[in-house]
Amino acid sequence: MVLSYSKYIWALPAAPCVKALSIKSLEGLSTMPKTARQLFAAWSGPGIHATLVTMFLIMLLIPTPRAHGNVSCHCFKERSFKPAQPASADPYILATTRNSLLAAAAGIDKGTVVRQRMTGASETDLWLSNYLSTRVDNRSADQLLDARDQASSWAAAFDAMNLNTEKLGGIFQTTRKADDADGMARSLADPVLGRAFTVPEPTLAQMRDTGANIAETALSLYLTGQLNQTPESIFSEVKEGKKTWGVLLNSLGIKIETVGDRIAEAVKGKGKQ
Q1: Count of C-beta atoms within a 10 Å radius of residue 254
Q2: What is the pLDDT of residues 177-225, one digit of tens each?
Q3: Strand, helix or coil at 268?
Q4: Within this chain, do residues 257 and 165 fall inside the same structural domain, yes or no?
Q5: Distance of alpha carbon 93 from alpha carbon 79, whole angstroms
Q6: Would residue 191 count as lying in a domain?
Q7: Which domain holds residue 215?
């Protein structure tokens, strides 16, 4: 019986990562090994303490299943700006930006994104499932994720599903043919950011060229109007270590815990397809 359920079992991060299954406490968690999303949702519901789940899983001693990327647990304890440690909250700032942006774009609860990230789904996985399901016909996020679990890559999964993605544009089609999952995800996220912050594709292309990821691009675009700087110059300052995201936000009197909501509001206002 245990073996028949092994594909649904994952290993929760060891203490001190596991404290309480609330979105606030899990915001900074990165990823854990892949599991069935439905079972995780059931186990993480009210009334079941994470410690009990951990003890149960330890007793089972079942090996963790394959995950698409490197799996690690990151608990971000710093959620406020500290002048003496100006970069200490930057990982959390990027995490909440990443999760809020994706949730708003896909029209789902942020808690869903956090829980999926805990099961081992990468940012790319979630753009190519949660968000992509809103842009293609008759495919749910779970169907897309299940197809990926059974394929060697996202491109192979789409091919196996005979998924028509022509309406997603030339960049998506090019990156799909190249089997570039991160490129496909970026081609979905960039138009959302372009609409949300009213910036043209050349600006987004420049941000890609600087090496800025999706969250870094979102933060740069959000701050550009308020700092009267180009998004490229903002990201360059952070990348070169001249400033931190915490320093920039603090200089504007923006509380770190509000950043995710601010990004989500911009997306919901103008970024939706």
Answers
A1: 17
A2: 999 999 999 999 999 999 999 999 999 999 999 999 999 999 999 999 8
A3: helix
A4: yes
A5: 8
A6: yes
A7: 90-271
